[in-house]
Structures are given as C-alpha cells and as structure tokens.
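Let's inspect one such protein example.
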Amino acid sequence: MIHNAVMLRIVKDGEPAETSEPKPQQQDDEPPYEPVRPFGARHIVNEDLMRLGLGEGVDAQGHRVLPKGLGWCQALQAPEECWPDGAELCVVVNWYPDVAHRPQYSNDYRKRTIPTGAAAHWEKRIAATVAALESLGYVAEFHSDLWTPTHHPGAEILVYRMAPGVEPPRKPANAWATYGPARPNFEYGINKAAYEQERVRRVLEAARLMMQNYVYGERPLEKVPSRIGKGCVVWDLKPTLRPLGAVDCAHVAWFPDPQLARYQEHWTEAQTLITATLREDGYATRARKEPWGPGSASLGIVAWKNVEPELEPWQR
C-alpha cells in the first residue's frame, strides 16, 4: 500500500540533498485485520438480502412488503463466540416459505395442514437462497436434518464470510443426522435445549457465578450474589450455531461489576474462573478469539459436551 508523501528537499551542511521519493509502506505497518461486530454483520447481510430480492421490505406507506413466490429471509445477530474459526462476520438467516406453502394451523399447533408442494418449495427455494448468498462471497450452510417443512414453519441458514485467504470450516452435510429435527417443533413441543441450559446453570450456581445463586442455608432457600461481577445468565443455543457434535450445549453470558468494568484484570479473572468451573464438570468451552475487556457489555462463552446425558422419560 503506497501512501501520499510530501516531497521535501533536505539541506545538510549547506548542500541540498536529493529529493526523497515516497516509499511503499512496509507490510508490518499494515493495520491489523478486524472482523465486523455482530450488529454490523446483521445489518450487512440484511442489506444484501434486500439487494437479492429476498429480504423484508417496506413500501412508501410503511406497509410490510415480502417477495412473492420466493420465500423471504431475515438475518439475525450471532454471538461472536459462535462464529466459525476465521470468519469476519456471521449471522443466522431465518428463511420462511411463501404464503401459499406455509402450514395451516388449528387451535392445537400440533394439528396442522402442510400444503401440497411445500417440500418441493422448501428444497428449491432454500437451494436458490444458498446459491444467491454464495454468489456474493458468503458461505451458506443449510442442514435439512435440522429443519423440515413437516416439523417447522421455517428454516435457519448459517451464513458467514471468511477472512481473506482462509478456507471455510464447513460442517458435513450429515453433521446433524443423529440430532434429529430441531426442537421445539410440530411433533415435540418440549425444547430439549432448555434442559441443557438448566444443567449448565446448576454448575455455575454451585460455584456462585450466576447473577442469583440459590443455596440452602438457615432458611429453605437463600439468594447469594455472584462471586465476581454481576454474574452469569445462561441461554439455550440454536443447533445452527453449535460446535460440531455438541449435543449438550448452552451459551453463557457474564456481566461485569460496573465499578470494575474498566479494568482488564476484572474481565480476565472472570473468564478464567468461569472456564475452569465448566471444564471441571466436563464441558468444553469456547470464547471469541479477541479477548473480552473494557468496552464490551458482557463476556460470552459457549459450553458443550459431546455425550448426551440420560433424560427422564418426561423430558424426551
């Protein structure tokens, strides 16, 4: 990269020196490559979906406008700790079928009518959507084992863009063959991920790392504050964003003490403590590559196991 330079005549010992020429900037001086932040990633992909004619629009009167016959898409933010290695941005694109191919519901959501041709519409339009996104330089992954027209009102597509020169770590097409359709769905109203979330919450609660830790004391149940910062909250994680093979998985977010949030040591200590606690219980963990610290609202960690625990009959 060559920057503009001012041509100077340098005088030394009364003699004019030769005019200095601009020199190329050394490669070591190149600014570091930085990925797009999650909110910006969602905005970028939604803009591209609009350009492709697949996004949700608004007319002059402010009314919602959807593509006809194509299905439509909306990009949602994905936590950075869930991004594929080397990705510069990542989102989950929710895809919905055209009106004519949407399930028709009765009072009981399990009693629905799947329109004729819905399966063909899903297959054709999702393939076209994936191809359209990849034509813009994105990597788009859709797993038909997770999302089907007989189980879901729509599907999810993992969309990301790699840093220059980095090969995308695509998951195999059959990556979720043994996982089954994502829950909750038309057949199974119970969200399995809720139990996974609860198991992680109990591990952190026992270590007094949750925002509200319930422990047995003199009274039947006593709330105890977190050992560090404001504490953690735990959310379930979409199968689309899970590490390959993760069957017992949750997303942990930790919030700092407002008085200490400006100190990097506060963030480092919290991440070390939470990670060690989860790993002691057999969880693998993952955080974003860039260290968390001042300027962030919270710290995120993905925790998972590759072995599914035994479920009670009522949980299945």
